[in-house]
Design goal:
This protein is an alpha/beta fold and 271 residues long. The protein has nine helices and eleven strands. Strands 1, 2, 3, 4, 5, 6, 7, 10 and 11 form a nine-stranded mixed β-sheet that branches. Helix 5 links the parallel strand 5 and strand 6. Helix 4 runs parallel beside helix 5 and helix 6 packs across helix 7.
Length: 271
């Protein structure tokens, strides 16, 4: 059983939603215009990305707090202005074959400002994970959304409960959000105890891994409890076609994958 259609435009599309995680980080340099455009070329309408703030207050799409892992530079994102970030090669470290080749080095791949993404790809919907956990990030994201009228195009996530709570208050709950860390754990535990009727969720979706160590997270009990409360369940990060098929048959509402080429090729199944 699927949940009732969401009042949020972001969540009204055909289910299950196929999210290109970081644009498809197994296929292209993650969180770059190259990956986002590549995923759109595969037919993806939903992209997942991450957000940090530069020294000069610009929202950029990058997962880590530093640029070291994904570029030829080093340092904290928050310590660098956008102009300096743009001089870094965001394709430098990507390799599709465990380091044998680096096909995107020196090809002009850069860290994108989020404004570039929403302007260049007006047809896409973005799931954005706030990686900086402070008031400056909340205000920057809220202002970014309001200035561009993006309330219907985004879903905001964060592992930090205080950040998501502050974001909901700042935006008067006009933007779809995912459950944060404690919110997710509380709902999962309540689903085990049959007590989810006591929870008044402020969120629109649970975004969870299929399992944590030996603990199963996503099963029919969680899905049933979530759907009865009108919540969607999105599962990350799934890169095997067999697991995608299993989760679709189970009835999940969305899958995030670093292999959107595989995900787009798996026929959706309605539970």
């Amino acid at each position: 059983m699927r949940p009732e259609p969401s009042p949020r435009p972001f969540l009204r599309g055909p289910l299950p939603i196929a999210f290109a995680h970081r644009g498809g980080s197994r296929l292209w340099p993650e969180n770059t215009m190259l990956s986002f455009e590549g995923a759109v070329g595969l037919g993806c309408r939903y992209l997942e990305t991450d957000a940090h703030l530069t020294k000069d207050g610009v929202l950029v799409g990058i997962h880590d707090a530093t640029v070291d892992r994904t570029t030829d530079g080093s340092g904290l994102v928050r310590a660098l202005p956008l102009a300096e970030l743009k001089r870094l090669d965001a394709g430098y470290r990507f390799s599709p074959d465990d380091g044998l080749t680096h096909p995107h080095r020196g090809q002009g791949v850069t860290i994108p400002a989020l404004a570039e993404v929403v302007e260049a790809l007006p047809q896409v919907l973005l799931n954005i994970d706030l990686k900086r956990h402070d008031a400056a990030m909340v205000e920057a994201m809220a202002a970014f959304i309001e200035e561009r009228g993006l309330q219907d195009r985004l879903l905001i996530a964060s592992f930090a409960d205080a950040v998501i709570k502050a974001f909901r208050e700042r935006t008067q709950n006009r933007v779809a959000t995912a459950a944060a860390g404690w919110e997710t754990r509380r709902f999962w535990l309540a689903s085990r105890l049959g007590l989810t009727r006591l929870i008044r969720p402020a969120y629109d979706a649970l975004q969870v891994p299929p399992r944590v160590s030996r603990l199963t997270v996503v099963d029919r009990r969680l899905l049933g409890a979530a759907h009865r409360r009108g919540l969607q369940v999105h599962v990350w990060t799934v890169d095997e076609a067999a697991e995608m098929r299993r989760l679709m048959a189970l009835g999940v509402d969305g899958i995030m994958s670093d292999r959107p080429d595989l995900l787009m090729g798996v026929p959706a199944k309605t539970a």
